[in-house]
Amino acid sequence: MTLQQLKYVITVAETGTITEAANKLYISQPSLTNAIHELEKEMNIIIFNRTNKGITLSKEGDDFLGYARQVLEQAAILEDKYKHTPGGKKNFCVSTQHYSFAVNAFVDLIKEYGQDNYDFSLRETQTYEIIDDVAKMRSELGILFLNEFNEVVLTKILKSHDLSFHPLFTARPHVFVSRSHPLAQNTIITNEELEAYPYLSFEQGEHNSFYFSEEIFSSSERRKNIRVRDRATLFNLLIGLNGYTVCSGVIDENLNGSDIIAVPLAVDDDMRIGYITHKRGMLSRLGCSYLEALKKYFI
């Protein structure tokens, strides 16, 4: 197995066709096909399923791809450190629930490492997809929260995927409302006071279990519910409908605007926000730098 073969596999997976991958790699199609066949034979796996309609990643190929990406990233770091030459394009991906501090840390990372040649990804996505991204090593890190309600279920799921949870900080639940909301001047808000207003939350797709919710107390019964996919839509609806959501309370005016504020919620619970990693993985320099950038926003 060579680094070149790993690059070939990743390029084919990204382009979806041997023809396009060969053009991108500046090699002939037969050479590319043979290189992949040799790798599959050596590793005793089928990376791509071949059909008349083209090729698709097999299940074990999808797992293999996660490890391949990590190997190439570590090789690039070694070249950068010891050969004192750029080790190729820097790659980094993080998957996260909808947190402004995760975005801010990502910006800091790019400012530090994103020079002329990089390929970084920030995936604000659903909870189950965060777990799946890290399990298949599409993402080096995943950011989510645990609390009394979801901890047993999520910890079991993380364990079954060989993932570890690392706490970052503990947050008291807050309510996000618009600055013009009737309850905005309160020093603390109760659940009873919120009953008349629309409750906004991030939908979780086919894995729409209470345990995957990004909002604490997701299982509580509410008369008015609105589910959205992205943070911008949620904040627009908070302002336009006098809605609210329950969150960590960490907010960034520069990123989210000055029209949204956080008010403490009168409940006895907390959110343990942290990051997940693969037990068989190793944090890259970029991963470590991202974590250091994260800590600046809540320490």
UniProtKB/TrEMBL annotation:
The keyword Metal-binding does not apply. Coiled coil: none annotated. Keywords: DNA-binding, Transcription, Transcription regulation. Signal peptide: none annotated. Residues 1-58 form the HTH lysR-type domain. The keyword RNA-binding does not apply. Pfam families: HTH_1, LysR_substrate. Belongs to the LysR transcriptional regulatory family. PANTHER family: HCA OPERON TRANSCRIPTIONAL ACTIVATOR HCAR, TRANSCRIPTIONAL DUAL REGULATOR HCAR-RELATED. This is LysR family transcriptional regulator. It comes from Dorea ammoniilytica.
